[in-house]
Amino acid sequence: MRQIEAIRPRTPDQLHRFVRMFVGLRVPRKPIVAGSAAPFVYLVHTFFEDGAAVAKRQAGLADGEAARGRDVLVWANRGGGKTMLGAVATLVDLLFKPGIQVRILGGSLEQSSKMYGYLRQMFRSPVLRQVLAREPTQRRIELVNGSAAEVLAQSHRSVRGTRVHKLRCDEVEEFRPDVWEAAQRVTRSGRCGSVYVRGAIEALSTMHRPFGLMDRLVDRVGSVGSARLIKWSALDVIERCPPARDCGKCVLWDDCQGRAKHAHGFMPVDDLVDQWHRSSDEAWASEMMCKQPRRSESVYPGFEVDKHVVGDRAGAGSPRLGSSTAVAAKPQAAGGEGDLMIAGMDFGMRSPLVMLLARVRGGGDVEQCVVEVLDEHVEESQTLEQHLVRIEQRCWPVPVWIGVDPAGGQRNSQTGLTDIQVLRRHGYTVRAHRRGIRDGVERIRRRLDRGTLLIDRRCVRLIEALSKYHFDVDRPANPWPVKDGPDHACDALRYMIVSLEIGSAAVKVRRY
Fold it and tell me: How far apart are the first and last CA of the chain?
C-alpha cells in the first residue's frame, strides 16, 4: 500500500498517466465540439478535492467553477465511456483516499453491476490485487486501507440506510424519481487519510426522454448552479479519423465538419457511422450528440421565448418568484384607450396558488385583442386569505375580473365559504366558466400561433411552465396533460383566457 501511496497523482498530468498505465485507458483531454467538456475534466473534478485548486485550473476549470459544490452531473452520449470513467473515478478514490466509502447506484441492479464489473476487472491487475483486504464479492470490494465500494439496489430501503462519502449514480435517466429524491440525503463529509472529502452525489447519464429526470436535472443545474454540469458528445470521444477518409462522403459531416481528423478519443469511427445509420434523427441528436430531446409531447409546442416573451431583460433580476421574500416590482399598467386589466387564478394549498395579472390591449373582437401577462404570484402552503394579503402588498392594479377554476365554488368544510366567495369579499369580480381542458388549450395555442399572447420576462414561472407542460410520454393515447408541476401556472392562464373569450362578446373600454 505504501508503494501505491508513493505514486499518488498530484497533478492532472500525473492522474492521466496513472489511468493510462494501470487501467490502459487514454481519456480524451480536449473536446472537439463547442460547448462540450473533455471526459478527463470529470476525473479531475472528482479526484482532486477542494484543496487542489491549482490542479483544477491546470485542467481548465475556472475558479468560479471550482468553487461550486462537489456534486456533478455528467451528461454524455450512449457508449461515451461514462460508466467506465465512473469505475476509474472509484478506483482512484479507493486507492488514494484511505477509508473512503463509495456506493454505486444504477437505474437498475444490472446497470449498477456494469460499473462495479469494470472496477473488479481493474483490481485483477497483479499490482492492484495486493491492496485488497479480501476477495471481492458480487457487490462489495474492500481495501487494506479501509476504503470500500458497494453496489446498491434501486430501492428506498437500500438507499436510505446509507451514509457514505460519495454516491455514484449511473444512468440517472432510468431512476425512479422517489429513489432519486431519497438519495439526496445519504452523503457525508470526512477526512480520508490526508484528504478531506466532501460528501457528493455524482450522476452520469444519457438524456433521451423529453421531460424526464435527466432533463429536469440539467435545467436545475442551469438555474441553481449548485452542481457542476459536464457534458460531452460522441464526437468528443471519437478516435482520430484516418487522413485518407473522404469527409465529403461521410454521413457524420454535418456534425463533425472534419474535426475528427484531430480527435484523440476511443470510439471507432466505423462504429459511430453504423450507429448513425441505425438511428432516427431525433435519437441521434439526443443520445449521441447530447442535444435536448425534441419536445414532441409538449402541450404548447408553438411557445417560443424569442417570439412570445417581452420586456427588458435587465429588469428580470427581481427576487425569485414563489419564495417568501419575493415581491416583484410593480408592473406598468398604463395603456391605451382600449386597455384593461384582467387576472387568472389557480387555487392551491399544498400545491402552489398561482395568480396572473394581464393587460388586454384594444377593444372590439376579443379574439383579436393582444393579451400581455404582466406579472405573477406563485406561492404555496398558505390560505387563500394569506395569498390575497400578499397580492395586495404587491400594489397591483385591481383587475376588472379574475378568471378561476369553477371548482372554487365548493365550500370549505372549516370556514363554510367557497374560494370564490372569499375573492368576492375582497372586492374582486369573479368569472368561472366550465370549459374542457382541450377547449382552453386550443384557445391558448391559437393565440400563440397568432402572436396575440405575450408574456413579460418577469413571469419566470409561467414561462417555464409553458415550456414544460407536456403529455404523458409513456402513454401516447392519453389526451390529458401530465399534472407534475407546470400545470398550475398553465391552468391559471387557461382560466383567464377562457373567461376573456367566453365571458363577453367584446372588451369594454377602461382607462388607467
Answer: 79
3-state helix, strand, coil in the chain (%, to 5): 40, 20, 45
| 262's grid cell | 484531430
Sign for the CA dihedral angle at 89, 263, 253, 274 comes to negative
Who contacts 489 (Cβ-Cβ below 8 Å, separation ≥6)?
346, 354, 356, 376, 378, 461, 462, 464, 465, 466
| The pLDDT of residue 478 | 84
Give the separation between CA 303 and CA 315, rounded to whole angstroms. 22
Q: According to the model, what pLDDT value does residue 320 have?
A: 33
Res 505: pLDDT: 40
Closest by CA position to 74, among listed 209, 226, 290, 229: 229
| Per-residue model confidence (pLDDT) at position 195 | 92
Spell 291-321 as b/e; 16+ CB within 10 A means b.
eebebebbbbebbeeeebbebeeeeeeeeeb
Region label for 193, one of left (φ > 0), alpha (ψ between -120 and 50) or beta (otherwise): left
Which pLDDT score is estimated for 338? 60
Instruction: Please report how the helices 39-47 and 82-96 are oriented relative to each other, as an axis angle in degrees rounded to 10.
Output: 30
Output the pLDDT for position 216: 82
450-506 confidence digits (pLDDT tens): 999 999 999 999 998 998 898 887 787 788 888 888 899 999 999 999 999 987 543
Positions of the chain with pLDDT under 50: 51-56, 58, 63-67, 313-335, 505-512
pLDDT of residue 414: 58
pLDDT at 350: 75
Residues with Cβ within 8 Å of residue 167, at least 6 apart in sequence:
102, 103, 105, 183, 186, 187, 200, 201, 202
In sequence order, what are the beta bridge partners of 238? 267
Q: Which residues contact 82 (CB under 8 A, 6 or more apart)?
A: 39, 74, 76, 170, 204, 205
- Sole residue written with cell 384594444: 362
Three-state secondary structure of 399-464: CCCEEECHHHHCECCCCCCEHHHHHHHCCCCEECCCCCHHHHHHHHHHHHHHCCEEEECCCHHHHH
Q: CA 40, CA 61: separation in Å to the nearest integer?
A: 11
CB neighbour class for 394 (10 Å; exposed up to 12, middle 13-18, buried from 19): middle
What is the rounded distance in angstroms from the CA atom of residue 195 to the CA atom of residue 72?
19
Alpha helical stretches, state H, 229-348: 253-256, 269-278, 281-283, 305-308
Please state, in angstroms and rounded to a whole number, the distance separating the CA atoms of residues 37 and 31: 6
Write phi, then psi, for 4 (nearest 5 degrees).
Answer: -65, -45
How far apart are alpha carbons 336 and 512 in whole angstroms? 8
C-alpha 55/C-alpha 52 separation (Å) is 5
- Using CA atoms, how far residue 497 sits from 333, 365, 488, in Å, is 19, 14, 14
